[in-house]
Fold this protein.
Amino acid sequence: MSNTLAYPMKQFQLPNGMRFWNAPESGRETKFIYREIFEERCYEKHGVTITDGDVVFDVGANIGMFARSLMDRFHDLQLYCFEPVPNTRSCLERNIAECPDRSSHQVTVLDVAVGAKEYQTTIDFFPSAPGNSTLYPEEKKQEFNDIADEFRIADLWKVKKGAALLALLLYPFRRWLFRRISKKFLGEAKPISCQVRTISNVIRERGVQRIDLLKVDVEGAELDALAGIEDEHWPLIRQLAVEVAPANKHQITMLLDRLRSLAFSRIVVENMLGGDDDLSLPGPCTIYAVREA
């Protein structure tokens, strides 16, 4: 592991009593990700399950919350955590190292991004929102603007009535608020050099025999990541949980057809608000795909 003290970090205490290291300015995002992973189980829905001994590719591992949530609940896991941003990876390594059950799992941290081919590039790191670090910064900025323009109270009311009531009060100021949020979180981007690898080459290099869950959350590079899986390796993958950025939602129909052709028989698309597959809603969505025996 790399030197976890090489980059500034702060430890945040979360509602369940756990403590996680992250960038010092990222307190709000840390708590938001906690809710998604620990309370909502955002990558474990619609038939996607984990059992003891599973092999998990955590592509876009960030600070390791998903990995830690699995390590705390299951035994003998093999985890491959992909995180190209050095600052974030230092936090990831420290959070993994401090897991009480660390010795009962095999955890491999890879300092690379994932794509359709192998090359050297830069990734934009956001100190206030490390989880939004992206190979596609312009699309990320546009995503914030689009949410402000397309947000509808009625959509939120369908799934979270309490939040909709609060949003109703703020609705007239939504564009101003989202501009402020965008400027705060994305306005101090730091381009960082990173290596892009393909999932297939990692499978070969590591001698991976199966992947029980391929989780992909890479802020706009998800289709590139899937394109880097060669035909011979798709049968190794039993389950998928893939977040699709707004800029790529127009390709979801084609992606779903591809997954069906690869024998994924149970496929569900869930929008950001937790509802059905209405792709007209703003924000990202998540695809869950399972091979049923």
